[in-house]
Design goal:
The complex is a heterodimer of chains A (315) and B (43).
Chain A: E1 5-11, H1 17-27, E2 34-39, H2 47-51, E3 57-63, H3 74-88, E4 92-96, H4 103-112, E5 116-125, H5 129-135, H6 137-144, E6 148-152, H7 159-172, E7 177-180, H8 195-203, H9 206-209, E8 217-223, H10 229-237, E9 243-251, E10 258-264, E11 267-273, E12 281-287, H11 290-304
Parallel strand pairs in A: 1-4, 1-5, 2-3, 2-4, 5-6, 6-7
Antiparallel strand pairs in A: 8-12, 9-10, 9-12, 10-11
Helix pairs in contact in A: 5-6, 10-11
Chain B: H1 26-39
Classes of the chains: A alpha/beta (315), B mainly alpha (43).
């Protein structure tokens, strides 16, 4: 199951999670079918009805009788995930939490179910968010756990207010990449796992890359030599803040299995696959101002390569 | 009937070592590869 990526979509009550999800499912994700787990408070799922029927949604499972971060037990959660993976084999699972959920325990639960956590995306209402942050602990935890912070409902505030809220969010979570939207209409490919394929394609067309509205660029790293695992992990843990995402498959010296790595806004994860036909290391790095970092990153990656697999000291 | 997943409390979130070689069938490998291509991990 570890090749299925999971995005957690969270945000306080009324912040616009379902609106954003609907927009993304309608316009993004490169047409790839996704599975959605919708968690709502109460027995009757309203948001689920908004999502059901969209062509991009391969399957939708509602967990509507408890909060996914605490009252729904591991068994029910794992059962829902297992059913989705076995019946629809999705490319991506998006979990929309309740507005009162703490995303961190949910992230552990995703990893415990054997799935790869792609990103935690937190939607913040720029109008009501500051009050929610003052009055509730969970709103703060949602902001602090985020890889991506989406400042939504910009049409309800002036620019100075939006700037002030963004600074407040940046203080609480300087690691997260921030986006501004109205009614969840976010065009970025960066948020969800399937965006990596789009950036890989763009990396082949550097002229078009600079025109992208997000200001993100990308480059692809390839090499035939195995890598030393420890220096490579150190590199992943110290990537420049401008690198918002990095994903790829690499082979470590002395290992039969290849390593899938996923970096999202400073947090990295490793998982393992065995694909004998993929001989080379391949990785995509996505971020802002990558022109400043590409040469140094390529050098650092090359320094992780072994001259000869047999000479590796890796146990 | 689904089995309750085994307790994974002892497993680290970020395993530094690959799992034991349980082996994929050719079909499973092809499916894994397809998913990774779709997600942009490999070409």
């Amino acid at each position: 199951m570890h090749t299925v990526a999971v995005d957690i979509l969270t945000g306080f009550l009324g912040s616009g999670k379902t609106t954003l999800l609907r927009h993304v499912l309608d316009h993004g994700l490169r047409g790839k079918p996704v599975a959605v787990i919708m968690n709502e408070i109460g027995e009757i799922g309203i948001d689920g009805r908004v999502i059901t029927g969209l062509s991009a949604v391969e399957t939708m499972v509602e967990l509507s009788s408890g909060c996914i971060c605490c009252t729904i037990d591991d068994y029910r959660f794992d059962l829902a995930v297992q059913e989705i993976v076995e019946t629809t084999r999705p490319h991506l699972i998006i979990i929309e939490s309740t507005g009162l959920a703490d995303p961190e325990p949910l992230a552990y639960r995703v990893k415990g179910a054997g799935l790869g956590l792609d990103a935690i995306i937190t939607v913040v209402d720029v109008h009501d968010g500051p009050r929610q942050l003052r009055e509730t602990e969970v709103a703060g935890r949602q902001v602090e756990a985020a890889d991506f912070l989406v400042l939504n409902k910009l049409d309800l505030v002036d620019e100075r207010t939006a700037d002030r809220v963004e600074r407040q969010l940046a203080r609480r979570n300087p690691r997260a990449e921030r986006f501004r939207t109205v009614r969840g209409a976010i065009e970025s490919d960066v948020l969800f796992a399937t965006g990596v394929a789009a950036f890989r394609e763009r990396a082949r067309q550097p002229a078009a890359d600079h025109l992208h509205a997000d200001g993100f660029t990308s480059f692809v790293y390839r090499s035939a030599r195995p890598l030393e695992q420890k220096p490579f992990e150190r590199l992943l843990g110290r990537l420049p803040g401008d690198v918002v995402r990095a994903k790829g498959i690499v082979r470590f010296a002395g290992r039969d299995w290849q390593c899938l790595f996923n970096v999202t806004c400073g947090r990295y994860e490793l998982s393992w696959v065995k694909l004998p036909e993929v001989a080379e290391n391949q990785a995509v790095f996505i971020g802002r101002n990558l022109g400043r970092h590409e040469s140094a990153l390529r050098g650092a990656l090359a320094a992780c390569e072994t001259a000869d697999e047999r000479s590796s000291s890796h146990a | 009937m689904h089995e309750r997943p085994r307790d994974r409390a002892d497993e680290p979130a970020n395993p530094s070592s690959p799992p034991p070689d349980t082996g994929y069938t050719e079909d499973e490998e092809a499916e894994v590869r397809k998913r990774l291509e779709d997600l942009g991990y490999v070409e």
